[in-house]
Each structure stands twice: as structure tokens, then as C-alpha cells.
Design a protein that fits this description.
This protein has about 180 residues and is mostly helical. The chain is built from 11 helices and no strands. The chain is elongated.
Length: about 180
């Protein structure tokens, strides 16, 4: 990869911001594996992919900077909701947090369970506190699309399981100051 390569310039911005490839790929909405392949192969990506990567690199300064107070509050609410979801399920929140979401270990039942709890916590924050999906995405350093996918998965589960629907309604009520 030469200094004139668009990927070289994107990599330089990434390194200067102290951001991992995984974080940059997440901001661009692409997999880290695909981004790594592009960089290692030294090829110029398609124009649409390049545009996504350039946009993500342009946001690196904001992403690497300290999150604003609102994002910190939303993130704190997410972890409080995650603790409530885990407590209700009889699971240890620390064990759930140990399973790295970026690992995408879809063959690991424990990871899948942790991912389900994270999705439920996102739904509780969204519905119980009326926090917009874009705000949750920013606070958790995810893409808005990832939040939408999580919300759809939870809504599908709620439609199929009335007990889960009632439980999430109660948790949303708890988060908004409702009855214990």
C-alpha cells in the first residue's frame, strides 16, 4: 500500500486517532475481517465501500474523543438495564459482559445468550426511557442499523412469547420510575 492509496490515508487517520481497525470498521458498517482484507491486499475498494470508509475516518475524531454527557448517561442506562435483564434471568451481569459482542461467536451458546440479553437491554432503554435508536447507537459505539436489527429481534421474540413481552414491559416501567 503506497502513501497515495486511499486506504493508506484512512489507515493513517485511524492510527492517529488511536482507534482499532474493528472500531473503524464498525463506524463504517463493515466487518473488521473485510476491512482487514482490503488493507492487507492493498487494493482500492469499490467506490461505495471507499465512501463508507472515508466517512467513518472523518468521524474518528468524534468517536475517539470523550463521549458527551448524554452518551455517557445513555451508556450507563444501558448497563443498568443489562443488569436488570440479567438479574431477572438469574444470570451474572459480569459474565454476560465478559462475552465480547464484536467476537460474533455465533456457535457459542453462552455468547448467544449474552447477545440476547444485550438486545433486550437495548429494547428496555429504547422503550422504557424513550431513547432514540441513534442515541443508543452513538453511546454504545454501534451503527444505527445494528440497533434496529437488535430491536427487530426483540420485537419478534416478544410477539412469539407473551411472558417475555410482559417481563420487558415491566423492566421498561422500572427503568422509567414505575412500580417495582
Amino acid at each position: 500500500m503506497n502513501a497515495q492509496s486511499p486506504l493508506f490515508q484512512i489507515e493513517a487517520k485511524r492510527l492517529a486517532a488511536g482507534v482499532s481497525r474493528e472500531q473503524l470498521a464498525g463506524l463504517a458498517g463493515v466487518s473488521e475481517k473485510h476491512y482487514r482484507r482490503l488493507v492487507n491486499a492493498g487494493v482500492t475498494p469499490r467506490p461505495a465501500m471507499l465512501a463508507k470508509l472515508r466517512a467513518a475516518a472523518g468521524r474518528l475524531g468524534r468517536a475517539a474523543a470523550q463521549p458527551d454527557e448524554h452518551s455517557r448517561l445513555v451508556r450507563t442506562c444501558f448497563f443498568a438495564a443489562l443488569a436488570l435483564v440479567c438479574h431477572r434471568a438469574g444470570e451474572d451481569p459480569a459474565e454476560v459482559r465478559r462475552h465480547d459482542p464484536s467476537r460474533r461467536a455465533t456457535n457459542d451458546p453462552a455468547w448467544l445468550k449474552a447477545a440476547d440479553f444485550r438486545r433486550r437491554a437495548i429494547a428496555v432503554v429504547n422503550q422504557g426511557l424513550n431513547v432514540r435508536a441513534a442515541e443508543i447507537a452513538r453511546a454504545l459505539e454501534l451503527t444505527p442499523a445494528a440497533i434496529c436489527v437488535a430491536m427487530k429481534a426483540v420485537e419478534d421474540q416478544r410477539d412469539a412469547d407473551p411472558a417475555l413481552d410482559a417481563e420487558l414491559e415491566q423492566l421498561a416501567s422500572l427503568m422509567s420510575g414505575g412500580e417495582w
